[in-house]
Amino acid sequence: MIDTHCHLDFKEFNKDRDEVIKKAKENLTALINSGTSFEGNIKALKLSKDYNNFIHPSFGFHPLQSANMNDEDVDKVLSQINKHIDEIVAIGEVGMDFFYVKDKLQRNRQLDIFKKFCDFANEHQNPILIHCRDAEKKAFNIVNQFKDIPKVIFHCYSGSLKTAKKIEDMGYFMSASTMIDYSKNHQELFSKIPLENILTETDSPYLHPVRGKRNEPSIVKLTISKIAEIKEIDFSVVDKVTENNAKEVFNI
Fold it and tell me: Domains of the chain (ranges plus CATH)?
């Protein structure tokens, strides 16, 4: 099992981070700790060094920040990514969030910054890990313009089946989070997405199947279990295919 998207650097884990990681190591092959800011990227890198060959870092710039950030802030993160390009497994999470951001100018700002990160991933031929809430079609249309990005991952995919089919046709990946355990919409959606295009994640500390509880990487097994249930195949098959997908995508 591999959790392809979590945030163990967040303050929610300050009191028991080592214990959570120890539990994860007992159950998982690896996990991807996704950075969301300049400071968060630093923490993600440190965790990867502390837990070498188990925690793998991605460096990103969350779209909820990007709506109000200036070019210097963006360039600072791009420079940081460039400096550590050989130590990270992907660029992200980056993207657009139109669920929380309604202002047209701020949405356009998110879009412009997302294009910058796509261009960087394209130039350096790095996988890109996309956050796109209520903007899945737009994000697909943008990233699809960059032909040298080796792998594209739509983190916690929640878009339409029509867009999912386009993502599938391009050989991109969609990750199913622990939200699938309680969301009928996600269950219906991923029942129709081929296993070969699916990754598994928790988005810890968020999206625990029990509202109000803190999520953690070891709970990714519930994602795998639910996918197996809705597709009516063995847990071991889902586990093997999605783990191999993750190893291929992130080269781990």
Answer: 2-250 (3.20.20.140)
